[in-house]
């Protein structure tokens, strides 16, 4: 799961960062984004297990091919980012931004290829909910981390417009709603954990909801109100806390999902 988490985070940051226009921040923001996501993809490659874990029943051949394909996707994404960072100084305007789209898309597809092999056997609907959950998780991680990362650049780029931060915050809020909606859908379809009394599984699940969704939702609202006042330094501090909590929530979600039918 560690390899998938790093790939999800890289994919989300890359895709969400493209809500920021190159002319707003110059190349420094995108240089840092490329360096950060390159590091994440290197970790995804190094920690990749190579083959899917034993899940009992045999999977179709195309699903067994998922982990090797994911490894290749992470590696190609990392090489693309390495090229982009090396050439960034000579890419005027918005030229070369397609590399970020491509690297982000490959990272996301790679994480989904890894994820589908973790599920084991199941119906098409089952697999669809599982994969959509992983995709939304990636965008949630990327949006909150991207917003926090952008907040730092208001300290070093005088006159930076507040609009890029507002766009990423909107994406963060939408992802939180989608994540909560998928949670409800999972339970409605019978894919959620069986919660009986106050056992350990129930407490972990309740903590995941509180830490990963409820409190980040409150922090998102506070950040939006703070940004309206153009207090970007305060907003960045709030986003630090939101980023840590969302990451903890998604990590708890992934650990509990190891034996469940859907990533919750």
Number of strands: 0
* Anisotropy-based shape: flat
Q: Gap between N and C termini, in Å?
A: 14 Å
Uncertain regions spanning at least 5 consecutive residues: 258-262
Total domain units: 2
Round the Cα radius of gyration to an integer and report it.
19 Å
- Any guess at the CATH architecture of the largest domain? Up-down Bundle
Structural class: mainly alpha
Report the CATH topology name of the largest domain. Answer: Four Helix Bundle (Hemerythrin (Met), subunit A)
- Helix proportion range: over 70%
Question: Which band does the percent of strand residues land in?
Answer: under 5%
Number of H/I helices: 10
Mean pLDDT reading: 85
Major β-sheet, in short? Answer: none
Q: What is the highest CATH level, the class of the largest domain?
A: Mainly Alpha
Series of secondary-structure elements, N-terminal to C-terminal: HHHHHHHHHH
């Amino acid at each position: 799961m560690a390899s998938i988490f790093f790939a999800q985070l890289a994919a989300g940051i890359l895709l969400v960062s493209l809500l920021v226009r190159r002319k707003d921040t110059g190349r420094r923001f995108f240089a840092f984004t490329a360096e950060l996501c390159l590091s994440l993809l290197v970790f995804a490659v190094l920690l990749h297990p190579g083959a899917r874990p034993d899940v009992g029943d045999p999977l179709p051949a195309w699903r067994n091919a998922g982990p090797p394909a994911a490894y290749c996707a992470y590696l190609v994404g990392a090489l693309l980012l390495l090229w982009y960072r090396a050439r960034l100084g000579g890419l005027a305007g918005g030229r070369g931004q397609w590399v970020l789209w491509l690297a982000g898309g490959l990272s996301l597809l790679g994480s989904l290829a890894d994820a589908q092999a973790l599920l084991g056997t199941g119906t098409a609907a089952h697999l669809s909910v599982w994969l959509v959950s992983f995709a939304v998780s990636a965008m949630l991680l990327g949006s909150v981390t991207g917003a926090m990362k952008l907040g730092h650049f208001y300290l070093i780029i005088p006159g930076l417009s507040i609009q890029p931060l507002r766009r990423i915050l909107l994406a963060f809020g939408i992802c939180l709603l989608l994540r909560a909606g998928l949670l409800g859908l999972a339970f409605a379809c019978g894919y959620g954990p069986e919660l009986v009394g106050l056992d350990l599984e129930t407490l972990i699940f309740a903590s995941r909801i509180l830490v990963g969704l409820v409190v980040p939702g409150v922090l998102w609202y506070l950040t939006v109100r703070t940004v309206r006042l153009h207090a970007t330094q305060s907003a960045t501090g709030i986003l630090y806390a939101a980023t840590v909590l969302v990451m903890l929530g998604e990590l708890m979600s992934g650990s509990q999902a190891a034996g469940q039918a859907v990533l919750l």
